[in-house]
Design brief:
alpha+beta; 22% helix; 5-stranded antiparallel β-sheet; 658 residues; Neuraminidase; 4-stranded antiparallel β-sheet; 60s Ribosomal Protein L30, Chain: A; Serine Threonine Protein Phosphatase 5, Tetratricopeptide repeat
Length: 658
């Protein structure tokens, strides 16, 4: 059967047929020896219940046993008989009560080991941790060496101990259902937001439909979320569109779909890109990503170039594992790699979510001790690329039920998840079990749940500086401390819009470039920022033409010094790449200062700084004949030298096309 749970993301809506066990199967779980009651009335009721069970009149048998319980409450075996029958009928809640009452009335004995085990399992499935813990502890005392599933029971005992302690120390407030117009379907799950929180993507399925589609809710001016609408007819189809993920700028979409023509496995991952308001036809991500098994539950990095997902392919750590793939310079995705330990476990590891910062991974697993079932864990990636030991997010984000995916906004303020609506209705008889509705929930993110790094973003549009028309440009973000490329997005060719995510505590260089245009250099220093808010920044690119110039904003010198600081290498290397691309271009590196100091000393300082840049370029393969340096001192200021901020603007190096 294809994976159909909430966490399976695909085929969520298929119903489970709960077949009632036969009378023989049901009674096979009873104690091998049932003490015959001395009381004639009790014995008569017991024999009546046994005959009704043999005749497959299960409801009548339960009624008879209930009478026996009421008239002879000390006869514990009768409670156990009813518990076994209710369990076979699918009434787990009733079975739990019967086993709990019965085991409290019979002596602790190895003959009741299976009942203790069943009581523990049932109580744990309903979050009755103390009852479950007591049952497992009693099991450990009386169980024979041949008792089945003891390893699982020992693990469940640890789960109960963990859960009881976690509930004494709750982490934040419990998630609450999102208000209307959301949660309009019977089933909605796998929420994901763009970096600016303007668009909420989720999977939805109406009650009367077995097919899933992707929906988008747009943020209103007051911050509320609007009416969900289908994402696009290019995406939603007659096939099943399951769990989806969207890049920070909202331009790249990856989603799971099943049974499409020319699919690799039964459920594959597909990609679509948005230009303007239109999504491209979905493309299968191919054999480097998809397998002949089940591949689903994707999560994209903020720039849409790293993809985490769940797969059941062979060679993993357990039943379901988390894999990662990255977009290569040639446009292909790298062969997917198993994240390995400590992230993946021998159990089910599913529903990954990589925070916009790229440093914190959230996922669900039943392979680690938690509250029971699938719990949400988080782990952090260090600079070497290794993941820390996973940490349980605690109660009430985790409960006794299976948890679904978690999403935390880039600013670490809001969280979103999906949960089944609580129901105590037993699935009795031969009827089809009713599916519990699944809703979207929201919560304020408590400190222990937050990603290691808080993120913000800069957004705007890229234009031709001359025509003022929107441009398709590459926008790259580098960490100046490591010279590492941390993000690479492309502005929209129709509107020119872009979004880049920035992490607190970092100093960034951002570059916008397009064919036949000068490289635009920008700087973001968030190492000591008190205000860490989104910024709006339109970028105008100058054509590569004689007389055009651009400020190089990421060249750094100590005060009154002309030696380039190490953080300057990112800018210098990008400048080298530009000059290698345009081999006919000759440039002047122009130095400028503020008006502090004498005009003569400022001319000398600006000249030496410009010459330092030229020397770096010439020693890294750029012909000296293409380079010229000139210091202008305090001449040609960009602003009045009346404040430190203005003086900083005037202290600069420019690239001038000759």
């Amino acid at each position: 059967m294809r994976r159909i749970s909430v966490l399976g993301a695909v085929r969520l809506g298929m119903v489970w047929l709960l077949a009632l066990a036969s009378a023989e199967t049901g009674w096979a779980q009873l104690p091998p020896k049932v003490q015959t009651p001395a009381n004639t009335k009790a014995r008569s009721l017991l024999e009546k219940a046994q005959q009704q069970t043999k005749d497959r009149d299960f409801s009548k048998a339960v009624e008879t046993l209930t009478q026996l319980n009421q008239k002879f409450p000390s006869f514990g075996e009768a409670f156990l008989l009813k518990g076994s029958l209710l369990k076979a009928m699918g009434d787990n809640k009733g079975a739990l009560a019967a086993y709990r009452d019965g085991l409290a009335k019979v002596p602790a004995d190895p003959v009741h080991a299976s009942e203790y085990q069943l009581l523990g399992d049932l109580a744990l499935s309903y979050g009755e941790y103390q009852t479950a813990l007591d049952a497992y502890r009693q099991l450990m005392k009386v169980a024979p060496k041949t008792q089945k599933n003891m390893t699982k029971s020992q693990r469940n005992l640890l789960t109960c101990e963990f859960a009881l302690d976690a509930m004494k120390h709750p982490v934040g407030d419990a998630p609450v259902p999102l208000p209307a117009p959301l949660n309009a379907f019977k089933f909605q799950y796998f929420p994901a937001l763009t970096a600016d929180n303007r668009f909420l993507l989720f999977t939805g399925r109406p009650a009367a439909s077995s097919g899933e589609d992707l929906y988008v809710s747009r943020q209103n001016k007051d911050g509320s979320l609007g009416e969900p609408v289908p994402i696009s007819p290019a995406i939603n189809s007659s096939y099943n569109e399951g769990a989806g993920t969207i890049s920070g700028d909202g331009k790249t979409l990856v989603f799971a779909s099943c049974d499409r023509p020319k699919a690799i496995g039964n459920c594959d991952l597909y990609i679509s890109r948005r230009t303007g308001n239109n999504w491209s036809p979905p493309m299968n991500l191919g054999l480097n990503v998809n397998s002949t098994e089940w591949d689903s539950q994707p999560s994209l990095s903020a720039d849409g170039r790293t993809l985490y997902f769940t797969s059941t392919r062979r060679g993993g750590q357990g039943q379901e594992d988390i894999y990662v793939t990255t977009l290569q310079p040639d446009g292909n995705w790298s062969p997917a790699q198993n994240l390995g330990t400590p992230v993946n476990t021998p159990g089910k590891d599913m529903a990954p979510f990589i925070h916009a910062s790229g440093t914190t991974l959230y996922y669900v697993t039943d392979g680690l001790v938690g509250m029971g079932g699938l719990d949400v864990f988080r782990c952090e990636r260090n600079p070497a690329g290794n993941w820390s030991e996973p940490r349980n997010l605690g109660y009430p984000l985790n409960t006794f039920e299976n948890e679904a995916s978690l999403f935390v906004t880039s600013d670490n303020q809001k969280g979103f998840c999906s949960r089944s609506r609580a129901s105590d209705e037993p699935a009795a008889g031969y009827r089809l079990a009713r599916e519990r509705p699944v809703e979207l929930f929201g919560f304020a993110v408590p400190p222990p749940v937050k990603a290691r790094e808080t993120s913000t973003y800069t957004q705007g549009r890229v234009f031709d500086a001359t025509t003022k028309k929107p441009l398709k440009a590459a926008v790259k973000l580098y960490d100046l401390d490591t010279d590492a490329l941390t993000q690479f997005v492309t502005s929209d060719p129709e509107y020119g819009d872009y979004i880049v995510v920035l992490n607190e505590g970092h100093h960034y260089a951002m570059y916008a470039s397009a064919d036949k245009y000068l490289l635009k250099s920008l700087s973001f220093d968030y190492t000591n920022q008190h205000a860490f808010n989104p910024t709006a920044l339109d970028i105008y690119l100058e054509p590569v033409r004689s007389g055009r110039s651009v400020v190089l904003n990421n060249l750094f010198f100590d005060t009154n010094k002309y030696d380039l600081k190490p953080q300057s290498r990112t800018e210098l290397n990008r400048l080298i790449e530009f000059l290698q691309q345009y081999r006919d271009v000759q440039i002047e590196v122009s130095g400028y200062t503020d008006n502090v100091g004498t005009p003569e000393s400022n001319i000398q300082l600006s000249q030496r700084r410009a010459q330092s840049v030229v020397e770096y370029l010439s020693t890294h393969g750029i012909a000296v004949s293409r380079l010229r340096s000139k210091g202008y001192g305090e001449g040609h200021p960009l602003a009045a030298n009346d404040t430190e901020a203005h003086r900083q603007l005037n202290r600069r190096i420019e690239l001038h096309i000759l």
